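Structure, all six chains, one model.
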Amino acid sequence: MSTSLRGGQAREDQLLSATLEVLREVGYNRLTVDAVVSRAHASKATVYRRWPSKSDLIVAAFMNATRDLPAERDTGALRGDLLGALEDLLDEMDRFGDVMMDLLGELGRNPELASTIRDGYIATRRQNLIGAFARAKDRGEIPADVDVQPLWDLAPAVIFFRRYNMGEEVDAEDVRVLVDDVVLPLAFRFSAG
Amino acid sequence: MSTSLRGGQAREDQLLSATLEVLREVGYNRLTVDAVVSRAHASKATVYRRWPSKSDLIVAAFMNATRDLPAERDTGALRGDLLGALEDLLDEMDRFGDVMMDLLGELGRNPELASTIRDGYIATRRQNLIGAFARAKDRGEIPADVDVQPLWDLAPAVIFFRRYNMGEEVDAEDVRVLVDDVVLPLAFRFSAG
Amino acid sequence: MSTSLRGGQAREDQLLSATLEVLREVGYNRLTVDAVVSRAHASKATVYRRWPSKSDLIVAAFMNATRDLPAERDTGALRGDLLGALEDLLDEMDRFGDVMMDLLGELGRNPELASTIRDGYIATRRQNLIGAFARAKDRGEIPADVDVQPLWDLAPAVIFFRRYNMGEEVDAEDVRVLVDDVVLPLAFRFSAG
Amino acid sequence: MSTSLRGGQAREDQLLSATLEVLREVGYNRLTVDAVVSRAHASKATVYRRWPSKSDLIVAAFMNATRDLPAERDTGALRGDLLGALEDLLDEMDRFGDVMMDLLGELGRNPELASTIRDGYIATRRQNLIGAFARAKDRGEIPADVDVQPLWDLAPAVIFFRRYNMGEEVDAEDVRVLVDDVVLPLAFRFSAG
DNA sequence: TCATAAGCGAGACGGTACGTCGTGTCTTACG
DNA sequence: CGTAAGACACGACGTACCGTCTCGCTTATGA
């Protein structure tokens, strides 16, 4: 019940919120620790005591904001599960789009950051998709001899590519086409197409 | 035939080469304009006269190095064309991997740079794939009612995602699986699978 | 009693000392802020936080070094007072000669600097001379109807002119001649010449 | 009668005029060769072919503008000669005041410039004063045993000091006082005062 | 009359210093 | 003790200016 602990937690949240705000406003490159510190009425020492570098701070802010996993949905059919999980992805992209783009770009420059993001963010999101395929196979929806592993990342890959590399908008209809015309036919071997 | 133009060109090339060298050695973040300038026995003014900022310089160096398009291959069959084009992509990734990763990350921060890269680099590479599908359709290899557009970026998307977002190595065998198990079945509706 | 203030003061003194050293070694024109900074094991920001430009820094270094006024001498006779004050001037010229020459030249280019130097340096030195004449008049050494004001700057003017405009050396004997043959005859109306 | 020579001469004058204009507008420090060149619609090579450095150019411009010596006046009396010569000095100060101040300051930084200015400018002006004293002595106006050499520079020294070091205005009345109350009494040993 | 050279405007260039900014460390004083 | 405030060393940035250089163009003499 110590105030200092809760205070510490609360302070941490304030710092991360301020970081996220600044991140949204000016992007990774132009974010300065001074700006964060000034917005949070904090001191640089307070920041650096917790996160040893600017990029740690930013990653922490991102991880904190995306801490809540989208709930795993079980609609009873692969199609519904996929559409649900991918819509969650789209949602998060809408809310953290530019920040994610920023961070994705940072991955190549910062291996530590990369593994944090991959293990802490991407991997957790992927679980929902892996789960969807696993349930479909358990249900017999997918033929037993189909290797689903290559299908896991198909839809996210295309969504990421279009959005982050090609700079295109991706909406629910695009996702539906992707699921119905690409992923499901491969999963079902056209038997249900 | 003017020497001045070629002289200017030559200087530019030297500067871009030096930039690329430094880029390869220390990466985007630790590249300094001073290092480039010193390697090229040039002056900062000479650099900044051409490229208004460090990132412009780096992009120019990348675009210059990847100016030469991989030749379009026509093997007479979609499979061969795809494998060829994707191997070229893999090759280029091997040669410019880290730099590309760096630049990809820059896209989200710099819209101008993004369109330069997209129009000048990605779009040109995509042409080879688009061409491969078009020829296959002309030959009747692909059923007339199959919409090939969603298939263009499928393979590159997966390759980019695995390599740049997931940090995995991608080799020729992975590409072969991708083509044989994902792209071609969709293109041929399993008829030739 | 705050250590921070003294600490700040101390740092300032170190910076100004380093500045003066470099100034002595290479002169105003070839002094670089980087050299100062490197000698003081300081950072450019630390310098520029205090003095907005290189010339401000140099002036501050000069003012700091000449902060200590030469003691006012009272020998009981005008001649002794004058010779004493002028010898002090010569001394200071020997110690800060080139720097003063440098700064003198800066006066015409920088009005703010000019008033700083005039009020903070020249005016304080002149006080000793003014005092000498005042005491002489009080003692009755100088006839009551002699206007001494034109005599105040006579000797310094000649010394400055010879040294800084004509580039000649000026020594104690020159000063003696100046006092005995020019200033005193005018002050005493030749009565005591 | 060659056009090239006259052209060369004319071009030289244009360059020096442009230099003087810029010098008047922004002063020695902020004058840039590029600004001069641009104003004269000339090329840097054209300037540097004639004057090897910026300061040479500026000195040349000054020397060119003050090429015309004030005529030596012979009023038949020392007082008139002195007042005449000093008024000429005041005139020139009015016309080239700031530039002279600038250059004077530069003397301490640039020995070559210093001797050029001293021999080419100051020395020539001093001739008029030296001549005035010589004629007065020849005429018997000044006692034969008076050493006039210390008197030569007395008035100019005071005028320079007041104007350039103290930043005061000096007008004809000041000069008159200087002559009547300082120089002439010393020259005449008060016999004519 | 023409060509060959010399001077020129334009402006790129190497170099050097400037003054600014950001990071991560560290110190001071307060609560 | 943890914190706000902010100074500090380091190092890169992008700008400005100097003095050198190269480029074509124009002009002006000498074959």
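DSSP finds nine helices and no strands in chain A.
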